[in-house]
Amino acid sequence: MSKTVKEIAVLVNGDVVGDGDIRIERIRSIEEAKTGDLTFVANPKYREWLASTEASAVLVPPGTEAAGKTLIIVADPYLHLGKLLAEFYPEEVCTPGIAEDTFISAEAEVSPGVTVFPCVTVDRGAKIGRNVVLYPGVYIGRHVTIGEGTTIYPNVTIYRRTQIGCRVIIHAGVVIGSDGFGFARPGVGNEKIPQVGYVQIDDDVEIGANTTIDRGTLGKTWIQRGTKIDNLVQIAHNVVIGENSVIVSQTGISGSTKLGKGVITGGQAGLVGHINLGDHVMVGAQSGVHEDVPANQVVSGSPHMPHRHWLRVMASLIRLPDMRKTIQDMQKKIEELEKRYD
Amino acid sequence: MSKTVKEIAVLVNGDVVGDGDIRIERIRSIEEAKTGDLTFVANPKYREWLASTEASAVLVPPGTEAAGKTLIIVADPYLHLGKLLAEFYPEEVCTPGIAEDTFISAEAEVSPGVTVFPCVTVDRGAKIGRNVVLYPGVYIGRHVTIGEGTTIYPNVTIYRRTQIGCRVIIHAGVVIGSDGFGFARPGVGNEKIPQVGYVQIDDDVEIGANTTIDRGTLGKTWIQRGTKIDNLVQIAHNVVIGENSVIVSQTGISGSTKLGKGVITGGQAGLVGHINLGDHVMVGAQSGVHEDVPANQVVSGSPHMPHRHWLRVMASLIRLPDMRKTIQDMQKKIEELEKRYD
Amino acid sequence: MSKTVKEIAVLVNGDVVGDGDIRIERIRSIEEAKTGDLTFVANPKYREWLASTEASAVLVPPGTEAAGKTLIIVADPYLHLGKLLAEFYPEEVCTPGIAEDTFISAEAEVSPGVTVFPCVTVDRGAKIGRNVVLYPGVYIGRHVTIGEGTTIYPNVTIYRRTQIGCRVIIHAGVVIGSDGFGFARPGVGNEKIPQVGYVQIDDDVEIGANTTIDRGTLGKTWIQRGTKIDNLVQIAHNVVIGENSVIVSQTGISGSTKLGKGVITGGQAGLVGHINLGDHVMVGAQSGVHEDVPANQVVSGSPHMPHRHWLRVMASLIRLPDMRKTIQDMQKKIEELEKRYD
């Protein structure tokens, strides 16, 4: 792949500052870029590299200045980087076909155009849509449905009755539809509550490696359209996650909790069960959310509080030993004042 | 399935308030239930739905009132819900048999009545008990023993010498018996300490998806009878978990720590190594337990403290910026008082 | 295996105190050791067992005294325990060979001496070094290279282009090379950024069960020589971990963060993206690191601070309700003093 800066600017609808005829062969990070490379500044942290980068051109946001550098100015460099990466580094496409050593029930329905690698099991009653790709070691349980164009990476397990939409990407080691964690008289009898529900994953969802999503006790656990879930996330029975949410790695969401649209949780966040988070709520990393959060709020801390207040609490917390000392000093002074007065 | 309210009351040994002849076709959550459905109130949070639910009958605890509703009153609605779910929605049972494409060592012992799906490996010296179910992609290492009626879901890995009891349920992606994390001179030489022990899982344990349990360095890591472990839990070498404990998702338990009977840990709790938790200890979500906890205590926080004290600390923490302001104000007032006095 | 205390002392270059002719048959923990056993004291917590242990001999650090006990004195008992465990309990070695039911591309290169179990897939362009062991259910993606003597346990997934060094140990369920979590306009458009980089794992690394390592967006995610990673750890795109680091279970490291050599992170620690930790930094369990940490520092807390300061903060935190009470009392006293003065 080789394109001029001018050609690239057309692709991303950007403005060129500098020499539009320079040829670009590769895309590299600003720390590693050399002559012939396009690089980018999306995170402001990396602006300091602008002066010293050896890149032949840089994708930057409006308002960026860099004397002597060739720039392509776009509204959202990260978004447009994505488009250029797809152009410069197209993924190899699998050749459709069903390998010999697969175990597809005679009572399953498999659409044309699928790619099924060896060691895949598709149990009875399952329906696999057009152009689905199933990598080695994937297990598709009874009565599971998988929509068109979905890709499931190796060693994924989909339990019975799960419904998966179109263009979903499920990374290796994910488990969907396992039994919800429901036991009566916990710590005493631990009697198992049968989990008779299912999981529904809507279109365009992506699920990170080794994430686990339990099926509903009754009814469904539901991941709505466009939501992206990172690696090693735990989603319990009957959780609902609204459209276009972003659940960062190692987050845990307890049973029956409901998230609105566009909710973002930071890494290692924990949400208790049976609460509601409104649309576009943001939860800080390592936070513990213990009650409802209204729409558009940003919360942090464990237990959580409004993010701005949490910043003030943390700024005070680090001074707590000094505060304690000050209190002890004041106590003495007050005692002295009281003595003097008497 | 269809039963009258009266018939259901007999099954759960409950008392009917209202019309015992109503027919029940399904069980649904109180938010979704319609005519013909039985629903339940186990968590008090859902009591508010009682007045508006369209369910034909509701399973409730003693003392519940709901004018005009048909109720079945039982001591523990969640426990009895479990029994009714098993009655209304019996799980399909696998037809026993060993698939062709399995890899069972000639030196392994397999009892009658087992179900072995394709792509299962059973290594030499392993013993598989009666009516065990091994789903696709399960690996049973050398000299592993598995007791009667145990179910192992897809893509589970059981390392060498693990001993698993009867009626154990192991969800997809679980790893049991991996090397404990033991290295001499950590951060410098990282010399590996051979992990020559094993894991013992007793009867009636359930282990959630993608949970990991390391084998002992010497001797065993031991999960005792009736304990239930959620998804994505980490259990290190030589940990002992007493009977009927409940370990919620993403908990981590470090090496050689010992839990008594009926211990409950909240989600994302962390326990350091080489400590003891007494019987029926409860550990709050996201807590960090750094030293022994006597029996029956409830602890929270990181580092942990008694739960009641933690509630008071957290109530103060949120006021910390105000406290700091107050301290500064008081300092000024004291200075003024001192000046006035002089 | 049976050796005299004297013979063992020679193996570990230790000094015998007591009877060097005693025969040792086994190695057991100090809590379980009986006659004929060697045991050890590595963690000072277990020193209290010295007087009562029934072990025939104890491996101890210099300066240890135990009247009437036979001791072997070595500089680092844990390190030498490792050597003796390898001697007393040698692991069974797999017999090399490639099973019939494997799926190795005609365009892959496989060196002599490998062991490949059934249900292993090796995709086109992959290169497998000498004496590599691939357990059942392992998936090796396109153009992956694996160095000599590396062992990969069951159900591991290695995505395309990953480069793995020599003598690496990868435990069951690990996922290496999955897509980094990169989306433009998170919570709104969630447009996927193609992840066109790869993962490089250097020699002598060990990776714990169900850990996930994403590939670089551009360039590589890089785990350097001798680093040991525990179970259920999340390593995001473009992270670099320096030589001989130790990453304890359930740690999460966000994108583009760089760790020096010999860094140690405690369990459930979280590191934000785009920061640098210097050589030999230590991060406490459950800490949240939000900015650069210079070499050799020890940090704790979320957000992190120097460990010693964190200890003081935590000692004050537990007294916060008392501090609040004291402040209220002081306020009253000051008011009274002010009244008296007026």
Record keyword descriptors for this entry.
homotrimer; about 350 residues; alpha/beta; Udp-n-acetylmuramoylalanyl-d-glutamate--2,6- Diaminopimelate Ligase, Chain: A, domain 1; UDP N-Acetylglucosamine Acyltransferase, domain 1; 3 domains; 12-stranded mixed sheet; 10-stranded parallel sheet; 40 strands; flat
Give a description of the structure.
The first copy, chain A, has 342 residues and is α/β, with parallel strands linked by helices. Chain A has 3 domains: 3-88, MurE/MurF, N-terminal domain (Udp-n-acetylmuramoylalanyl-d-glutamate--2,6- Diaminopimelate Ligase, Chain: A, domain 1); 97-309, Hexapeptide repeat proteins (UDP N-Acetylglucosamine Acyltransferase, domain 1), CATH 2.160.10.10; 315-341. In chain A, 15% of the residues lie in helices and 27% in strands. The first copy, chain A, is built from 4 helices and 40 strands. A 12-stranded mixed sheet of chain A has the order 8-11-14-17-20-25-28-31-34-37-39-40, with helices on one face. The radius of gyration of chain A is 27 Å and the shape is flat. Chains in contact: A-B, A-C, B-C. At the A-B interface, β22, β23, α3 and α4 of A face α2 and α4 of B.
